[in-house]
Write a structure and sequence with these properties.
Chain A is of the alpha+beta class and about 1300 residues long. Chain A contains 35 helices and 43 strands. Chain B has about 230 residues and is mainly α. Classes of the chains: A alpha+beta (about 1300), B mainly alpha (about 230). Chain B: It is a multi-pass membrane protein.
Chain lengths: ~1300, ~230
Amino acid sequence: MISIIFVSRSLDALRRSVLGRPVLPNGRELTTPTRMTLREQLRKKISAAFYRHGLLCASYPVPIILFTSASILTCCYPLLRLPLPGTGPVEFTTGVRDYNVPFHEPQGDLGERPDWYHGPPVAYIQQVLVKAAVSPWDSSLVPVDVFRSPLGKVFSLLEEIRNHVHTDSSGIRSLEALCLQVTGLFPGLRRMQSVLPEHGCLLVSPGNYWQNQRELFDSDPDLLRTIQKHEPKGLHTSATLRDLLFGVPGKFTGVSHYNRKRVVTYTITVVLSHYDASFLNSLRNRLKQLHPSANCSLRDDHMVHVHFKEEIGIAELIPLVTTYIILFAYIYFSTRKIDMVKSKWGLALAAVVTVLSSLLMSVGLCTLFGLTPTLNGGEIFPYLVVVIGLENVLVLTKSVVSTPVDLEVKLRIAQGLSNESWSIMKNMATELCIILIGYFTLVPAIQEFCLFAVVGLVSDFFLQMFFFTTVLSIDIRRMELADLNRRLPAEAGLLPQKPVPLRTREVPPPPRPSPHTITLQTPAFRNLRLPKRLRVVYFLARTRLAQRIIMVGTVIWIGILVYTDPAGIRTYLAAQVSEQSPLGDHGGGVLPPHLPVAPVFRGGDPTSTLSIHPAPDPTTLPENQSQGHLGPARAGRLPHAPPAGPQITWGADDEEGWRRLSFRHWPSLFSYYNITLAKKYISILPVIPVTIHLNPQEAIDMRHPQDTRHPPPSIPKVSADFQTDLTLYKVAALGLAAGVLLVLLLFCLYRVLCPRNYGQNGVAHGRRRRGDLPCDDYGYSPPVSEISPLLLRGHSMDIECLASDGMLLASCCLAGQIRVWDAQTGDCLTVIPKLGRSISSSGCWEQRDAWDSLSGAAESECADPSNGCDGALEDECYPLRRRSAPSRPPLFTNQPDLTPLIDTNFASLPPSNVSTPPRVGFDFGGLVERAYTEHEPPSTYPSPSSASSSPHSCTLLQRSPSLGDSTGPSTQDSAVGTQGSGDVSSVWALELRGNLIAAGRSSGKLELWDAVEGSLRCSNEDSVSGITALAFLSNRIVAARLNGSLDFFNVEINKPLGLLHRGAPCRGSVPPSPCYSSEDVINCQLTRSVQCAHHKPITVLRAAAGRVVTGSQDHTVRVYRLEDSCCLFTLQGHSGGITAIYIDQTMVLASGGQDGAICLWDVLTGSRVSHVYGHRGDVTSLVCTNSCVISSGLDDLICIWDRSTGIKLYSIQQEVGCGASLGVISESLLVTGGQGCVSFWDLNFGDLLQTVYLSPSGDGQGVRQLLVLDNAAIVCDFGSELSLVYVPSVLEKLD
Amino acid sequence: MTTMSNSDRRQRPGSKESHRCSWGPYISAITNRTTNLFIRGGMLFSVGVFLALVLNLLQVQRNVTLFPPDVISSIFSSAWWVPPCCGTASAVIGLLYPCIDSRLGEPHKFKREWSSVMRCVAVFVGINHASAKVDFANNVQLSLTLAALSIGLWWTFDRSRSGFGLGVSISLLATLATQLLVYNGVFQYTSPDFLYIRSWLPCIFFAGVITMGNIGRQLALYEHSFLQQKTHQD
């Protein structure tokens, strides 16, 4: 009966919650003529606009996304015209003849001139390219002769250049006047000091190795070692000293023992600060005159200006990297907050895409309107992202997610948008203001930044409104679909109302191997309940995403390394680009040395091909030597003569030999003198070719005595070029080996650190069927520990009240029998037979015990509340066991639909049961019998049967967790009708402290029993109103009564003798519970009675931390102080009767009501901390942990809320009728009751850990009450039995 | 339970704090208040040292055009005691802010999230970056711009009067101390432009104080939740 009322209540509540949905803020509200401030009007307008916009976005997601993508692409289109970023040098070529130093100010139309080409260059570079050879080659010559005498020529050339003086009408000019005077090397370059010129003209040549002194050169026994001495050790990537001094790349110099061409090439580099055409011409002519280059056809009419971009050094990179790290941390922390969506990472990606594309759009728009960005994009990018921010996106998500779930997606999006509209607009206005202020700083860089930021903000707003909102709506729709999919099978499985534990339909119920074993539910079922976060972890583990990302990152890193290596691919690319660009193109193809393209020869000299093709055939060597009598000068003049001796040829690549150098060549040369070339340019003048032919005699004359002692090199079969290649291969092989080693090392480390081979056995897709190993996708298997429930049998009827203090356990069944159990062992210590009865009735008890022994299993049947026993049962309700061994499933499946029978008008019902004739000596057997008979045809469910003599108590004191199923009354407010005769009353509330049992009766009588001896210690009968709830704290008892009054009792103990402590119950971590010895005289004194604590019956009473909290039907919660029973607060906030309250030692107070709302209160101030609507129907129980609030409702849903934010983390669908039974064992372990089983959940993830079946037969008696003891045991009632379940793993943890 | 905490750890990598949250058994070892204080101080100290090094590098870049090949040494180009001083100062400030909050009894409620803190740090680095990279016409303009940016930082991320007061007083004190050091010759500005440094120093100090206070408050929030957890466990 009570359950019927509950149903009506809950339906009512449901209806109310549906009707009472918050009014949608549509535009119509605007028309209300109420006077409001401008601000409010604006706010309303904005919110209405956002609402409509949200509707639009959610209605047409695909077109809108297409539209946004199109607009993004359109806005990004101008970006194509921007040059690619890069730091490679840019070139510009002008003619030499009409060259003038460009003006500082760019004037007029520049034509093809680049914008950097103004003002004088940092320096002019004049290179004298020397090619020298000993010719004809003599077999008497040693390999050292190939380069010793040619190098020796550099000193005379240097002399010539230094002393060259040009005289004309304007005066005498020497090199000293024109060259770039350097003052000193950069302080950090000690090792360069001896080599590079430290003062005077910047004139660089190989002679610098010997301080430009011939004597040092002549006395140098080993030239190569001198040259090698200055090379940096290890792998060098930028310009080396050798390159600097020789002016040509190392392998082209020919200074080695293996030089087959026997031509030595080097340059003398003169750096000029002023340009004087006549001086340079005279120098050129002079040198050509001295050393004529016969077949040289190098062009000398172009000069190349090279502009260098800003360099990025490590020092600049560190702050940049720091800002990027901060940026990523920001993104990480932001996206971490996204929750309760279908795909968290998808949304995070959408958010990042929103921000990035808004940045791109802003740059594109700025470019479109002619505002070319001058700022370094990479540097300001993180700041722009931070300024634009992800906040709005997150706020939107949160707001949409927190809208009621039962709404349509469209409406949810619209509501969420309109809720946050005001704050979004406000924030945007604020940011725009700040940026506007920044614009008026009148600093160009800041102004530009601000302009970008404004455009970026606006485009970001646009994208948020269109792109992100739409993505969000799609996501939420997906989530709802997933929800639907999840719920459908569950409900389908439940429709036949099978009492077996819930299983998904496609899986046949597996054979339960043995009683009391732990069985996991189907993984399919479990997977659906996983929280999103855990799924991400699974996903990561499954796809090994982290490893792959690391691999990809390594590849990218290597790529970057290769790209940034100046000698590497980048130079090549730069060369390519400069070749293709009109600026760098000037006829002679500049060929990268390793391109196998046939070169273009200007001279058309067929012999010159030899100089290009490396390594002439070694077999021709003897012939060459034999034919080497031709004069050197004639070698070029006789083109048709067979090649004789070393040929000095001039090819097109000699024209601009500097191109073959590293592009950091010039910057590094200048940086040694602390001159930066960043954002500046240098002009490279056409080279002066110098050809020197030396006699073999000269070479022999210049020999150092040690040279001949040098062993003749065994000419290897490989060419010198190939050798350099070989080093490259070596490096590559070494790198590969190192990489493999690194991977192996990482792998070992990984295996050591993560011994669990997750991912290996988790072959993702195949979801494990039931009966497989209880193992998760990522290899985690819950500890298979022996959890065996301990059945405490003895009660003859359904357990109604449970109380425990950790050591003892008191239970009271519908029959009024109180049993005291040892919570450790499960032994029945005491049986307190018939409360309130005289001892004379003890005979009956023996009879009853006989009954018990007779019909063991069938006993539980009588206790089924749906049989109709629950409503009108009083302590004598004896089941009539006419139906021997009734099958339960039919009972459940034939469960009548109770809703049409609901009739709360109890006053009109006749008190029919009073006149029922007694059977078998008991008063109300007839009632029960009638209940049974009337239930046989299910449609006539006995609604009148519950109309006992105190119907009002039944109607008002409702609290049931289920929708017309097996749940019965629970502890405090179990309303059992008082008997018409009035002399016997039932126990409505039970509390246990120490060895005292406090029992509140329906007659208003408070009794204190000795739990050990089973004797009544004292009783109090001050009031006649039934005690609905009891709280027993230290020596105080608080009793809530049906009439809304609250009584405070004081338990006084007068110890006649030395006090005896009962050992067991007093230890442990329980708050010191009083221990009473049997000799004590216990007196229970009413200290205060708050007559009108509530206007309506008190439904819930909780006490902790010195506070007593009551919840009542009158929608309020009251907080009393325990000491002086003074009312501290009246908490109003619910729109329905209070059904659940939670308070603990840390003064956390939560309350739930019939309206499905959960409120968190601050007990110190009485203010409401948060307020959420969680359930359709009553909130049936509430538990708080440190981080979350767990609630269960009549909708059989257990919801887990974040305590600080009030956001629903996830929910667990319970089996029908078991919603109310839940408890928290530790901070992260939740236990819920099910049909004949209890389930353990990981609270952090909503992951089902274990299910423990309570009875061997496995029939589904719903667990309706669940009590968590302090020693990590749980007690649950299970029909007429109690089940004690220890959780050993939790015990380990607590220890 | 251990497996649970394991999965917890696996699930939230990345932030030290959530790590600390999930070190189930380890919590008991560090619930001691003083230990916690030391941990917080240590973290703040390291953050301060790191920021000092990076920002010093930014400032160095302004004055030196090119770097010798051994660039890394220029990170430590300033006096060795500057980063530790910055670290200590940031630790003190970061501990002082939550302390003052609790003394005044007005807990800081505004934007208490790590993402906001990260944003604050990024803006702080950005202010430094701007002061180092952007060429200003004169020092007055530089000072005004930086002051506006700093106050914008305060308004965006802090908005508490106590924070503002503490920031102003500490930045004034720090500027005074730096000036005293310079006059006594303990410390020298690298830049010959003396006024330049004096013009940005107070603003940078202010922004730094706000930033460190923000970090400190956020850390204290975590400690607070720890203590709650601890009492609950007890």
